[in-house]
Write a structure and sequence with these properties.
The chain is α+β, with helices and mostly antiparallel strands. The protein contains nine helices and twelve strands. Strands 1, 2, 3, 4, 5, 6, 7, 8, 9, 10, 11 and 12 form a twelve-stranded mixed beta sheet that branches.
């Protein structure tokens, strides 16, 4: 009897929670629940790819969370404490000339007489107009594609700790656009495409014309990789596992066919393909399909920095940030 009574109390508590949370019927709100990413495609190699900065500075266009990314370039130098974080306090002392290498099939090589932002931008524009760039084909397969069983819109920030402002904007967008009736699952998705990389050689006379006094504390960007990304939340009348399986097979069939798992599902989507790092708001699986098929808009966009490699100025050793 005592066993049945305790279960009755638990049942009443659960019903109470559900009735008080009609705006989000999938809401779990349990201290024990931790949303976990499920990898569909994962080509990440942190030791060789560098530091992931793909979501760190993103914003949302025409929203309160506008992007304000730092201007970074290959050769830019910062104190260790701000590298791959705020990227502030750039060391602007005169540097020695350096060559830039673009990893197109037929590599493009440019020279910065005085490595600085303006010089980098000039070489980048020249590279994008070159025959070498015309021969470059962006990958048709994502660099990274993953889904998570979100459980509640309140948990978006848990999966994007590097940019809680962006996560909050995505949550607020979904609260305004998704209808939560008959929803059985909420799925959070991330798709990242990797484009080309730009790297620099090590100047034979060292990076700086004159050795900085705080050289032991300085890190410079040795390589940047550009890419495009999409972030979305799906409100579905099917279980998360069914949604996951649909993406593992053919999500296009899943939303185009009347009997498909995603046919009656809703989506709020943000795509980021240009240097502004502002997500463009979209609301259909057709939009997601268009992004997956052509994330760089037929070469009109080259993306934004998603990966960076840092090297210490004092000895050109790889910089590995401390884990928080």
């Amino acid at each position: 009897m005592k066993y049945l009574k305790s279960h009755y109390v638990v049942l009443i508590s659960l019903l109470s929670l559900i009735s008080c949370n009609k705006s989000d019927p999938t809401d779990i709100h349990s201290d024990d629940f931790v949303p976990i990413w499920e990898n569909i495609i994962n080509n990440e190699f942190p030791t060789s790819d560098g530091i992931n900065i793909g979501i760190k500075y993103l914003g949302v266009r025409n929203w309160s969370a506008l992007s304000d990314p730092p201007y970074i370039f290959v050769g830019a130098t910062f104190p260790e404490s701000s590298f791959a974080n705020s990227f502030d306090r750039e060391v602007t002392a005169r540097k020695n000339s350096a060559y830039l290498f673009f990893n197109f099939p037929d590599p493009y090589i440019g020279n910065m007489d005085m490595p600085q932002g303006v010089e980098y931008l000039k070489v980048l524009k020249e590279a994008l107009k070159s025959d070498e760039y015309k021969s470059f084909k962006n990958p048709s397969r994502p660099y990274k594609f993953r889904l998570a069983n979100l459980g509640s819109l309140s948990y978006v920030e848990k999966l994007f700790p590097d940019n809680k402002r962006f996560a909050k904007a995505l949550e607020q967008l979904c609260r305004q656009t998704l209808k939560m009736e008959h929803v059985k699952s909420l799925s959070l998705g991330e798709i990242v495409f990797k484009g080309f990389s730009v790297s620099m050689d090590i100047p034979s006379k060292g990076l700086f014309a004159e050795t900085p006094s705080n050289i032991d504390n300085l890190v410079y960007i040795r390589e940047l990789t550009y890419g495009a990304s999409a972030y979305f939340i799906i409100a579905s009348d099917h279980r998360f596992q069914d949604v996951l399986n649909a993406f593992k097979s053919s999500f296009v069939d899943a939303f185009e066919k009347p009997e498909g798992v995603l046919n009656k599902s809703q989506i709020s989507l943000l795509t980021v393909s240009d240097i502004s790092q502002e997500g463009i708001i979209k609301d259909s699986f057709t939009d997601l399909k268009a992004f997956v098929e052509d994330p760089f808009e037929k070469g009109k966009q080259y993306g934004y920095p998603i990966l960076c490699k840092g090297y210490r100025v004092k000895d050109n050793s790889v910089f590995v940030p401390e884990r928080e």
